[in-house]
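General statements about sequence and structure are easier to judge against a single worked case. For one protein, we set the task of working out the structure tokens from the amino acid sequence alone. The sequence in question and its structure tokens are set out directly beneath this paragraph.
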Amino acid sequence: MIDITYYGHSAFLVKMGGKSIIFDPFISPNEKASEIDVSSLKADYVLISHGHEDHVADAEAIAKSSDAMLVSNYEVAVWFSEKGVKKFHPMNHGGSKKFDFGWVKYVTAIHSSTLPDGSSGGNPGGFVVKHEGGCFYYAGDTALTYDMKLIGEEFKVDFAFLPIGDNFTMGIADAIKAADFVGTDKIIGMHYDTFPYIEIDLEQAKKAAAKAGKELILLNIGESIKL
């Protein structure tokens, strides 16, 4: 069982194997997450799916204050190393690496990726994380892609962090298909309601998921669950 805390948008803290991993920390610029004190957040790892501001805003601060290992694609990892992040690990699509909290594979995402200063963020991706207690998929920002079926063929995915806000990523209908592709009935929704472009009808999304036999988990900012 692992502990998951939601910090808004696509930012999550996952505690597992005695380690703390923060995914895509966009917290301090997010008005909806104004009650979260970023300076109090500590992590052993910071995993970044791609270079957009709404996924990397607090990555440098958290990585430096925690002396955390920052893991992302090559371009994003090197960009942060040039900003003074001392511990970093670059990956690329299809590659995997064993860390002390589990085994990570960097997988395809269909999106774009430009860093805040206009530098190339390389190709966006997601992460499959296999650990002692199971396996989960963090999709990052992505469209529905048939490559997700490969994840379902290779792994037994317990749950998936999937974007549901539409417009820039999948909406709920495609997220349900993505869950089918990767072989899970449990979706943790992300990348919704932060901005007007991605505001959605949450009740409709829950009904659509339930009708498809899926559990859609929508956490309040600051809320934690165990899975």
